[in-house]
Amino acid sequence: MISETTLNSLVIAPSLNIRSAARAIQSAEIKILLVCGDDRRLLGTLTDGDIRRAVSNGDDLDGPVGSIMNKTPKVARPDESEEILRARMRASVIRHMPRVDRDGHLVGLVLLGHMDDVRQRDSAVVLMAGGRGSRLMPLTANKPKPLLEVGKKPVIERQIEQLIDHGFHRFYISVNYLGHMIEEHFGDGSRLNIEIEYIRETEPLGTAGSLFLLPPQKHPIVVMNGDIITKADFGRMLDYFTEEGVAATMAVREHHYTVPYGCVSMDNGRIASLDEKPTFRHLINAGVYVIAPHTLEHLPRGQFFDMPQLFEALISKEHPTNSFLVSEEWIDIGHKDDLMWAQKVFAGDDKLD
Questions:
Q1: How far is CA 72 from CA 42, 45, 107, in A?
Q2: Contacting residues for 238 by C-beta, under 8 A, at least 6 apart
Q3: Does residue 61 lie within any of the structural domains?
Q4: Containing structural domain, residue 17
Q5: Burial category of 118 from C-beta neighbours within 10 Å (exposed 0-12, middle 13-18, buried 19 and up)
Q6: What does the pLDDT look like over 180-193, one tens digit per residue?
Q7: What is the pLDDT of residues 13-46, one digit of tens each?
Q8: Which residue, 116, 136, 164, sits at the end of a domain?
Q9: What DSSP assignment string belongs to 60-78?
Q10: Global pTM value
Q11: With DSSP H G I counted as helix, E B as strand and the rest as coil, what are the percentages for the chain, rounded to 5?
């Protein structure tokens, strides 16, 4: 059971807007918010999964959380022991269970511990590490981009450690440019207690083209660009993919920028409105994907092909796809400025924690 102070920090009103709730979940160690009325009666729960579904559905992120919350969450009663509750939670794959009194008022929150929460994943992870890293020259003249160090550790090793923490143990690394250096660094993965095999591109095949070289897969496949540092919850992304029953899931991230000028809208030669320094928000591709094994049938053999092209092919054939919002730390080191920023963020750090 968590402390009263921590519990109070998770309580929100149903009128809070979705965007603010997403920020609150991002900054909180416990990834759930408890929606209560003025009398502290539990009205529903809100998780990052609920927010991600809202993003996929195109809901207005300035709308109230009451419109997207889970209104019928599973709850615990005061007389139920935590041991029994945790067994129920593991069986139902539930990470959090609010405890309420007989009148439905919130009195606590039961959590699964980290070791209970993480289970071994059978899905393979494919890390795309074959690019030349031209925008990072001369840093990549004698070293492949994924082996550039951030916080005393190669970017791709940070990725792998983060994925291990979420239960993944089967890895494929797609290599081309200076790929032998990546193979020498990791070998077969035994140093990290995982399995690593290599997909060797004889020519650049893009972020999806080399997937046709994979052996047959029975489970969903996680694909990730080799130049990303993120604290995204890969396990939850895989679970979300499975729950939604789609062909492919793309991780997305909200990106916003402010125009540094006043913008003018015209109508038939007359000024219709003025908008001073407006801010625009977009969802961008975060470079992490989960795909069903059958989607590999849509890949051309031996041709350059990117993941967005695979999604376009699936969409054109009416295979369902969706998005998974990443609100956690995310840095793409593909540009020198971003690499320098990542090195400052993780200076002196030897692991992403």
A1: 10, 8, 17
A2: 121, 123, 220, 222, 290
A3: yes
A4: 4-116
A5: middle
A6: 999 999 999 988 88
A7: 999 999 899 888 877 778 899 999 999 999 999 9
A8: 116
A9: -TTSBGGGTSBSS---B-T
A10: 0.69
A11: 30, 30, 35
